[in-house]
Specification:
29% strand; 243 residues; binds 2-oxoglutaric acid; Jelly Rolls; globular; alpha+beta
């Protein structure tokens, strides 16, 4: 498969819980896509508190980004050929946007068993200044308890920092059009955006058919879409891609 990971990269992902950056398209191509997203997706419905959930269900433009071969073939190197796109999130951080606290995604998700790979795709350049995502290598090996977040954070719960060593955190600085992969328990966060530059990212959530996605805990009609191979198990509600 084009863009497959090498065995060393797969091993690195298993060890560190994240991998990348990789290229999906050039910054110039992504600038064109960003303009279309602003016009087609965000103009009608701006993201609430900077988050826009699962627009791949109704926008072909967003679906095509999520199902891009540069992402899916790398994920298939880790989980095998049968893959379900079960959710996506735009994270828009305008100037002054709040901190996303350290957290593990499994704390929030209706997956059983909790298995997921995310691709975080930079729609704008993501830098330390405009609040790129930071990850903690190896943090996925521990199930971290979550506690209530202090006031002024974007998420209501955060990792209990007694269980997390943030001194080894890595800033995932990306050019527009690049992405990185991380798994369902990799502890990550983004700081407040104190710069003058907006930072928009698309997080693509993919799992395997062995996982049951409880879509009733998302919203009615929120089905998974087979983005590679087939679903031989039928544990989750599945639909086709948008037109
Ligand atoms: O983009 C961000 O600021 C946060 C990303 C995040 O928490 C995620 O993709 O799970």
């Amino acid at each position: 498969m084009a863009d497959a990971l090498t065995p060393d990269q797969v091993e690195q992902f298993r060890r560190d819980g994240y991998l990348g950056p990789f290229t999906l398209c050039s910054p110039e191509e992504m600038a064109g896509i960003a303009e279309r997203l602003d016009a087609d997706v965000f103009a009608a419905e701006p993201p609430r508190q900077g988050i826009h959930q699962s627009r791949h269900l109704d926008s072909r433009l967003v679906y095509d980004l999520c199902a891009h071969p540069a992402i899916i073939s790398r994920m298939a190197s880790i989980y095998g050929p049968d893959l379900l796109l079960w959710r996506s999130h735009f994270f828009l951080k305008e100037t002054g946007a709040l901190e996303v606290p350290w957290h593990q995604d499994t704390n929030y998700w209706p997956l059983e068993p909790p298995l997921n790979i995310s691709a975080w795709v930079a729609i704008d350049d993501a830098t330390v200044e405009n609040a790129c995502v930071h990850v903690i290598p190896g943090s996925h090996a521990t199930v971290v308890p979550h506690v209530r977040s202090p006031e002024g954070m974007l998420f209501p719960e955060m990792a209990d920092m007694e269980f997390v060593d943030a001194t080894t955190a890595v800033a995932m600085q990306l050019r527009a059009g690049e992405f990185f992969l991380f798994n369902e328990r990799t502890v990550h966060r983004s700081e407040p955006n104190l710069s003058a530059h907006r930072r928009l990212g698309l997080a693509v959530r993919v799992t395997t058919p062995i996982v049951r996605v409880d879509s009733r805990r998302l919203f009615p009609g929120h089905n998974a879409i087979v983005v590679s191979g087939e679903d031989r198990l039928g544990f989750s509600d599945v639909a086709g891609p948008p037109d």
